[in-house]
């Protein structure tokens, strides 16, 4: 009976884990949103269920935007004429609202299908 060293066992375990792991970022959905004249463009978008989401937000206005969603659990400020990124964990099907906390009339909806 042959005994394997700790390094060999650790290497074998790492190879097995790598074989069953998903490639990094492979199942990610990217959504691009602009803010212009205190309005999200688009104000409604769709994404697949059970997939992590990356929002890329461009603030084209001259005032900061507080991009926020309670159900999606994020809040970030994007300075005027700047861009921001928000990563959200995978969600179940449904409608998820987001808004600009600095401009309460600016609202949008993410539909998870």
TrEMBL record:
Q: Which keywords describe this protein according to UniProt? A: Signal
Span of the secretion signal? 1-26
Q: Does the keyword Signal apply?
A: yes
User: S-adenosyl-L-methionine as a keyword?
Assistant: no
Identify the Pfam families for this entry. Answer: Cupredoxin_1 (PF13473)
Domain EfeO-type cupredoxin-like residue range list: 13-112
Task: Report what the protein is called.
Answer: EfeO-type cupredoxin-like domain-containing protein
Q: Which organism is it from?
A: Bradyrhizobium oligotrophicum S58
């Amino acid at each position: 009976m042959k005994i394997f060293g700790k390094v060999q066992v650790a290497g074998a375990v790492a190879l097995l884990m790598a074989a069953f792991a998903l490639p990094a970022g492979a199942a990610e959905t990217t959504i691009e949103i602009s803010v212009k004249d205190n309005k999200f463009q688009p104000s409604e978008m769709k994404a697949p269920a059970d997939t992590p989401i990356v929002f890329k937000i461009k603030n084209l206005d001259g005032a900061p935007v507080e991009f926020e969603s309670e159900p999606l659990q994020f809040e970030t400020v994007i300075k005027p004429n700047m861009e921001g990124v928000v990563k959200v964990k995978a969600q179940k099907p449904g409608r998820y609202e987001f808004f600009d906390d600095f401009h309460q009339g600016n609202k949008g909806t993410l539909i998870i299908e």
